[in-house]
Write a structure and sequence with these properties.
By secondary structure, this protein is of the alpha/beta class. It has three helices and eight strands, in the order βββββαβαβαβ. 21% of the residues lie in helices and 28% in strands.
Length: 127
């Protein structure tokens, strides 16, 4: 029995991740990215500590609007800065911080369930 979730055509699926970057819908990305079902853009940060509200314009302009943002911090769990989490909450966006592997897997599950999810991801070694 095949239990692979059916993903609607055109949705962005994270196929793999590693310290060299990501493969999303067959395309390689070698730096941090923001991915949501309809798109992928570079995430202009050098680490979670440098992530500010201004680095997430793609999340705020996504249509339909993002309701959940997963933040993948690389190899190890790291919380996003409190000001960033508060600003996202004020905009009605739930934030979950986790290591990048967990964020990639969670994004794929939520996206396949047709949830309004995005993931801001730092590269990480597969666990």
């Amino acid at each position: 029995m095949d239990i692979t979730p059916l993903v609607p055509e055109g949705r962005r699926v994270i196929e793999s991740y590693g310290d060299e970057g990501f493969r999303i819908n067959g395309e390689r990305y070698s730096s941090p990215v923001i991915v949501w079902p309809e798109g992928v853009v570079p995430w202009q940060v050098s680490g979670i500590a440098t992530a500010g509200i201004e680095t997430l314009d793609a999340v705020f302009s996504a249509e339909p609007p993002v309701e959940i943002l997963l933040i993948g911090s690389g190899d190890a769990f790291e919380l996003a800065p409190p000001a960033l989490r508060q600003a996202l909450g004020a905009r009605g966006i739930a934030v979950e911080c986790m290591d990048t592997g967990a964020a990639c897997r969670t994004y794929n599950v939520l996206m396949a369930e047709d949830r309004r999810v995005a993931a801001a991801l730092m590269p990480a070694r597969p666990g």
